[in-house]
Model the fold of this input.
Amino acid sequence: MKTKIHFIVNPIAGKGNNELSEALLKTYFPETEYSISIKKTAFVLHATALTKASIEEGAEVIVACGGDGTINEVASCLVNTSVVLGILPMGSGNGLASNLKIPKNLKKALSIIRNQKVIAIDSGIMNGEPFFSNAGVGFDAHVIADFEEKTTRQFFSYLKSILRTLNKYQYKNVVKLKYNGTTELISPFLLFISNSNEMGYKMSLTPRASLQDGLLDVVIVPKLSRMKLFLFTVFFLFKKHHWLKEVRFQQLTALEIKSLDNTILKAQKDGEFFVPKESIIKLAIRPKNLNVCVL
Done:
């Protein structure tokens, strides 16, 4: 029996104009052993629909060809199944791929898929929707909202979004955090919840996070003065944000965030802007429920 591998390609991820030729794929996956299908996305959430169709068609490996948003759409359909996720990093940040040591070099990434060394990784869940790299409430969500308005998705565009958001960011909401039997009130600058040790562009708020430890790594940063905001940003860029005494770290299996005035909180998951349908955000970890091709 031939192994069925389907490639879901986001043509506009990263710098855009992403192509994947059938001729190239056949050099890695000969027709005598593999059945190959290439599908291109044309609109938001199209990767989800294409992945579901590929599952129905009996695909054994489904390869997400794009950034963290594309990977999220594909992988969300594969949790708790035997179908294996492959990744060809074609996005701008590529946080999850970098954590898994999957290179941007197309030929090297294809070799990883062909070798089919598979591990099971954890996934997070936010109000019932999976995430695989990270999620957040507060500053990072506002940065993502600004970033998504720009046509160029590169590191310097992301850096500009950080600086623009710092200049205008005001967060007055008080939220209730519930975790490990503890309840606390906080006016947060940032609540960052990570499954992965990288958030893209080689940047990290949670360098010790693991995709296989059954835990979410949470960074809690309260409202800061403008001077402390500046210091936090500088420290973060040099991966030294832990130097700021206000920054706290937790490792949790579940976290609940609720605004006291029932405001709908702005959030992000896997680098995509996310607006919850209610004023409460529930996060949890789902241990080792996704199979992924790795180096």
Remarks:
- The chain has a mean pLDDT of 91.
- The longest strand covers residues 280-294.
- The radius of gyration is 19 Å.
